Amino acid sequence: MQEGRVINYEFGAGIWMFQQFIDRYATDAYGPPVGTLEAIERATAVGDIKVLDINYPFAGEGVTVAQVRETLQRTGLRAQAITPYLYMREFQLGSFTNPDPAVRHKAVDLGKRAVEVAHQLDARYVKFWPGQDGFDYPFQVDYRRLWNYSIEGVRAVAQTDPGMQFAIEYKAKEPRTHMFFSSAARTLLAIQDMGVENVGIVFDLGHPFSLKKRQPRCCSSYHGGANWSALS
Question: What is the pTM of this model?
Answer without folding.
Answer: 0.90
